[in-house]
Amino acid sequence: MHSTDRSAADAPPTAPRLFGSIQYLRALAAVMVLLYHVGFNFHFLADPQLRPHWLSAGVDIFFLISGFVMVVASERRAIGGVRFLTERLARVVPLYWLITGLFIAIMAMQGDVLPDAGEIVRSLFFVFDMNPRTHEPNPILVPGWTLNYEMVFYLLFALLIRLTVTRRVAVMAALFLGLCAFRPLVPHDNALLFRMTSPQPLEFVAGMALAHVRHRLALLHPVFGIVAMAAGFVGLALVDSPFTRVVHFAPCATLIVAGAIVCDRLVRADVAIFRLLGDSSYSLYLTHPLILQAFPAYGTTAGWRAGGAIATVLACITLSLAFYRWFEVPSLRFFRHRLKGHPRLAPAAA
After folding, report:
1. What does the alpha-carbon distance between residue 292 and residue 39 come to, in Å, rounded to a whole number?
2. Are 328 and 297 in contact (CB under 8 A)?
3. Burial bucket for residue 47 (CB in 10 Å: 0-12, 13-18, 19+)
């Protein structure tokens, strides 16, 4: 494992460096999701031959990282389920609620139809709901659908936290597979049942399993990790799979995360920009829809699309760094002070 050269007093209130490679992979996953959304906004990724959907696999990588981080972080100290869940809420909720409020404010300024009180409550409290504007089972802030899954995972993790990792993996796998069995019977217009019978949460379990065997993976020669990551990205970007999105993406994302674990010994230096992007990946994931909503690309001429897309990407990254520096870090310090006896809150992996 790798750490920075900063003293503990100067370090931001995120988790200790678990794996440098995982931190950098978190940054890459966030940028993949950003490029996916910006690319569609500027109509660069409309051509199916470009296989643009593979960039959205950043979400699948995030889910695996989340399962990995929760196991590694929880092994470092004795912690009860209530404490674990409290820390997770303190880590995830404040920024999500703030960005959701800002997103609604932008909608109001643009004269859009605003969500009613019921939809706002369901979005803020992570209840799967059908979004009447996108006609998909998403909350008001569309990327928040992944946080709904995260909350389900956190709740189950808290309930099972006294079990060994092996048993936790087995119980969660059995539960999620059991829910998947009902998938053919679920109407697609029922957001809760449609989302909960998806195989997507099994990616959390895969991340937990990788954390459980991480010491064995770390013993492998880095060439195996490089091959695994290369195979994962090739599988995402180039392979035409007859399977559904999750069935195709999950194995590829697992190869990528496993490869990153194997290659961790190659991450000798602390590259500041990659570390910062990894630290601020949660802010980037949540705040970039603000830019895309406030400055839509519709009507942009072809000659200006490339410049507009690049400017949008840079604006999204800049905004996320500002939110990380001026809201996320102070928020973490505030709750760390309130949750005494606990040095740092683990990073949000959504």
Report:
1. 11
2. no
3. exposed
Query: The dihedral of CA 276, 282, 283, 284: what is its sign?
Result: positive
Q: Is the dihedral of CA 109, 114, 116, 120 positive or negative?
A: negative
CA atoms within 13 A on the CB side of 318: 7
Q: What are phi and psi of 103, to 5 degrees?
A: -65, -40
pLDDT tens for each residue of the chain, 350 residues long: 333 333 333 334 444 446 889 999 999 999 999 999 998 888 777 655 545 678 999 999 999 999 999 999 888 777 899 999 999 999 999 999 999 999 999 999 999 999 999 999 999 999 999 999 988 999 999 999 999 999 999 999 999 999 999 999 999 999 999 999 999 999 988 999 999 999 999 999 999 999 999 999 999 999 999 999 999 999 998 887 778 888 899 999 999 999 999 999 988 767 788 889 999 999 999 999 999 999 887 655 666 788 889 999 999 999 999 999 999 999 999 988 888 655 444 454 43
In 45-129, where does DSSP find H-type helix? Answer: 58-74, 81-109, 117-124
- What are 38's two structure tokens? 């910006």
The span from the CA of 245 to the CA of 222, in Å, is: 29
* The pair of three-digit structure tokens given for residue 325, joined into one six-digit string: 């520096």
Classified as helix, coil or strand, 112 is: coil
pTM metric for this prediction: 0.90
Residue 114 has a CB neighbour count (10 Å cut-off) of: 13
* Cα distance from N-terminal residue to C-terminal residue, the chain: 22
Residue type, 220: L
Q: Max CA-CA distance within the chain?
A: 58
Residues in CB range of 326: below 8 A, 6 or more apart: none
DSSP tag of 327: I
Instruction: Tell me the C-alpha distance between 314 and 272, whole Å.
Output: 17
Round to whole Å and give the CA distance between 114 and 244. Answer: 33
